[in-house]
Amino acid sequence: MVDNINDVPGIRAGHFSCEDVLTGCTVILAPEEGAVAGMDLRGGAPGTREMGLLAPDMLVERVHAIYLGGGSAWGLEAAGGIMEYLAEKDIGFQAGGGPVPIVPGAIIYDLELGERAWPDREMARRACENAEKGLWDEGSSGAGTGATVGKAAGKEMMMKGGCGSAAVTLPGGGVVGGLAVVNTLGEVRDPDTGRIIAGIWDGKKFLKTRDLFLAAQEKASFGNNTLLGVIATDCRLTPAQATRVAKMAHDGIARTVYPAHTMHDGDIIFVLSTGEKKANLNTLGMVAAEVMAASILRGVREAKGAGGVPACCDISPE
User: pLDDT by residue (tens digit) across 265-276?
Assistant: First the structure.
C-alpha cells in the first residue's frame, strides 16, 4: 500500500472541515483536461448531482472534479464553488459561452450530529485551495467530519465514521487509489478477522445489526446514511470500463460494511481515469475493491469522537 488517493498522478484531493458544527466537504480535482469517469450507485437513498452525464453513452466523457459533502441535499449547492474556482482558471468543457466545469457529486446526511449546518460555496473553494496546496488528512475531516456508523439502535449507540484513503501500485507501474466517506447504517468489520471495529456500541460491547433487525424489526432505527467512494487510477479506461470498475469496487463496501446498500443508504462509487497506462480490467476491478475496503477501515480507525459520539480510539471492547 502507498499512502492515499493523491498518489495517483493528476489527482489532488483536499478537505474543508467545520469542526464547530460538524460538517464539511471534500474535493477531488482531476487534471486540467479532465478525467474519464464512471460511477455505480447501489444505495436506495442517494443525494447526487450531475449523475446522468456519467452514463457511458453521453456526450461529455470527462469530468474536472468530484464533490463530496455533508448537509444532505442542502450541501449539494456547495459544488457551485468548485465550478467557479475551476472556471476562473479556464478549466471546463469548452462551450461557446466559456468553460463549463463538470463536477458530479454526492452528499451524506450528517444533520443529526452537531448543529444543523451544511457546506457552502466558499467552503468548497477552500477545499479546492487545500487540494492544490497538498493539505490532506484522514478521519474526521472534510465530508467525513460529521459522519457516523452503526445507527440501527439509534443515536445513543452509534459511533463516529470518517474519511479514509488508500492506494496500491500495480506491477506495471499504474496506481489505483481510493477514498471513502463512511457514514453507514451498518457496522464496519475488518474483513481479515470478521471483527467489528465500529458500529452499535452499548458502552461495553458491540451489538450486531443483523440480530437487532431479526429480533425486533419494529425497534430498529434506520437513520440517514450513505457511503461515498471514489476510485482513481492513471490506467487508461473508457467510460464503460470506468463504470465496470465502479461496479467491482462495490465489493469493497460489501466486505467491510454490514448491511450495505440498504434502502436507507445512498452508497455510490465514482471512478476516475487520468492516464494512459495499461492494465487488465479484471485486475483493476479486483484491486479497486481492495483499495475501497482499506479506505473504509482507515476512515473509521482515524476518526475522532465528537458530539458525544465515540470513535474507535475511545472504546475498549470486552
Answer: 999 999 999 999
